[in-house]
């Protein structure tokens, strides 16, 4: 099958159906949410899938045009838009999340981490172990009704391992994903990026100590401390780490040791977002990122990778960083927000909320707002959210029944036809007539024969005995003389020399048609006046917007399901979607209703130079 496709396999691996897809995208992170993908189908293709789909047990495989696997996992949800359906697919980690949890009190004391991971994988009947590395030999952990996926993640946090849920339903637990690729350069000058790379985090943290807090509280609370190798006295800089689920000091110590090493090795936290094309970059790879105007030319690791597959090929949206374990430290977020601008940018925080008011939409009419001047000096978009609120279609008047009366009185019509004339044109024409030709003889010596006539004519001769007249093929014998012979008739045609025009003229006339005696039209006011009040019910029905497609500058971002029976509100993340200058945000519902849009943002801006 040519193009992107979605294949549905049963739990036994048998293919149920394969349908064509329009677009697909997937997002994977080294730490954070489980991997997921979305594939867009025409409604007709989705109908074929829906007929055979077992939402709980089937395997969904998104295939590239070359037939290789783009993503595989479990059905999550479907969202219907205008003529299409977007199907969400979760990675096979969903199996580990939904599997039977551990027992009430499962304790491991000083064992290999690989042992704990294997036991957790064995709790998931649909998955099996792939590559399982041993990174710690004396790990102590305990679980109480823990989801297998959460337990595996907890072990990985303690040891620094990285996880991969493979498309063949195996799980890898390894020291590191990806490889170093210094030859892969993400830079405008190399033409490997769509737009200029964007710095989203640049803050320095000279952390010297970390204190960790685990389970319990007060004097019984589990605690541990870690000190940076580079610290040799002087003013300390302490950070805190807290996880109430940690009950073993050794596990807490491992975690904060890894974190202090990352702080010590990379005191300057740098995150850069970029859209890459024409490069082979996997999650976990370290590549070279160059931004000459910011004096950045260094290796950074791909910690988040979003691949967009469409008719024009694949575009990679990458988040690269020199941090992994400490980049999401929310306890330090506010301090880092200030530091990033005190250090070189001389910028400021720009917070804004813009309500655009409710308007009716539907029946081919979208709700559209214009963002006139999105800043071009943004260093980081902390968040850009669009709140989409749906409510009932409404009218400013109550459409009560009413009527109009129309009266048409007696009336008449008159038609006058005046004197006039006609002209008749008689064109050139022909006449036919017959002519007698006489074969004859005379027995008298003296005779007179008249000739030269061209129409009906006479021949006559005279002698002493009287006349004999021949006319039109007949003859009369007079007394005396002897006439003998015969005659025949021929037809001769003559032609008129031209046409003749004759004009006749009427004597004048007037015709009058009369019906009744005149005409008057009268319209009365409504017998039931319109009521000036808001109404949301029309012939017993209310209409709420559903399947609202949100697009920015003509590009679809997502589809909000909404609710067909009541008011609703959902928030759409537009971070990174707006471009400097004017932007058009469109909300197009599949069904009619009223839509209210609120755009809110928190931006870190450099500010324009006054020079």
Automatic annotation (TrEMBL):
Residue span of region Disordered: 1-22, 481-529
Protein name listed in UniProt: Uncharacterized protein
Residue stretches of biased makeup (Polar residues): 12-22
Composition bias type Low complexity, residue spans: 485-527
């Amino acid at each position: 099958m040519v193009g992107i496709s979605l294949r549905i396999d049963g739990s036994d691996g048998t293919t149920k159906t394969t349908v064509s897809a329009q677009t697909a995208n997937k997002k994977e992170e080294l730490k954070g949410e489980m991997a997921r993908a979305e594939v867009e189908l025409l409604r007709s293709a989705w109908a074929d899938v829906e007929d055979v789909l077992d939402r709980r047990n089937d395997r969904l495989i998104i295939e590239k045009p070359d037939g290789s696997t783009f993503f595989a996992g479990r059905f999550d949800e479907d969202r219907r838009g205008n003529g299409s359906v977007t199907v969400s697919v979760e990675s096979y980690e969903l199996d580990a999340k939904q599997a039977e949890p551990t027992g009430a009190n499962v304790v491991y004391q000083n064992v290999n981490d690989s042992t704990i991971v294997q036991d957790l994988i064995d709790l998931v009947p649909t998955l099996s172990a792939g590559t399982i590395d041993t990174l710690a030999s004396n790990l102590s952990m305990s679980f109480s009704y823990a989801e297998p996926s959460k337990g595996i993640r907890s072990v990985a946090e303690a040891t620094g391992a990285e996880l991969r849920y493979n498309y063949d339903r195996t799980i890898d637990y390894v020291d590191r994903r990806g490889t170093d690729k210094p030859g892969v350069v993400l830079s405008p000058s190399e033409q490997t990026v769509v737009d200029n790379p964007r710095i989203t985090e640049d803050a320095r943290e000279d952390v010297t100590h970390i204190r960790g807090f685990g389970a319990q509280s007060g004097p019984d609370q589990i605690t541990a401390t870690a000190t940076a190798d580079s610290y040799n006295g002087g003013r300390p800089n302490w950070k805190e780490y807290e996880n109430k689920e940690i009950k073993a000091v050794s596990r807490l110590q491992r975690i904060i040791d890894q974190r202090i090493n990352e702080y010590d090795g990379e005191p300057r936290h740098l995150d850069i977002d970029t859209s890459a094309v024409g490069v082979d970059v996997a999650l976990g790879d370290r590549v070279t990122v160059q931004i000459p105007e910011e004096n950045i030319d260094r290796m950074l690791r791909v910690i988040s990778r979003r691949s967009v597959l469409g008719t024009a090929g694949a575009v990679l949206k990458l988040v690269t960083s020199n941090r992994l374990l400490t980049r999401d430290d929310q306890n330090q977020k506010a301090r880092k927000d200030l530091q990033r601008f005190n250090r070189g940018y001389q910028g400021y925080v720009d917070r804004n909320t813009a309500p655009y008011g409710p308007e009716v939409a539907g029946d081919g009419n979208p709700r559209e707002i214009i963002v006139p001047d999105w800043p071009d000096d943004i260093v980081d978009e902390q968040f850009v959210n669009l709140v989409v609120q749906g409510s009932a279609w409404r009218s400013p008047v109550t459409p009560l029944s009413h009527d109009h009366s129309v009266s048409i009185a007696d009336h008449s019509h008159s038609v006058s036809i005046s004197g006039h004339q006609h002209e008749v044109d008689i064109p050139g024409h022909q006449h036919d007539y017959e002519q007698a030709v006489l074969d004859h003889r005379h027995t008298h010596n003296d005779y007179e024969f008249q000739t030269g006539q061209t129409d009906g004519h006479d021949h006559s001769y005279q002698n002493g005995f009287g006349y004999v007249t021949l006319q039109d093929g007949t003859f009369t014998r007079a007394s005396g003389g002897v006439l003998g012979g015969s005659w025949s008739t021929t037809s001769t045609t003559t032609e008129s020399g031209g046409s003749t025009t004759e004009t006749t003229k009427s004597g004048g006339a007037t015709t009058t048609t009369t019906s009744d005696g005149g005409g008057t039209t009268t319209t009365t006011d409504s017998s039931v006046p319109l009521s000036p009040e808001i109404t949301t019910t029309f012939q017993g029905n209310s209409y709420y917007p559903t399947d609202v497609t949100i697009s920015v500058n003509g590009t679809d971002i997502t589809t909000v399901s909404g609710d067909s029976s009541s008011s609703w509100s959902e928030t759409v993340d537009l971070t990174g979607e707006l471009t400097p200058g004017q932007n058009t945000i469109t909300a197009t519902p599949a069904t009619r209703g009223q839509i209210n849009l609120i755009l809110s943002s928190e931006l870190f801006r450099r500010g324009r130079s006054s020079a």
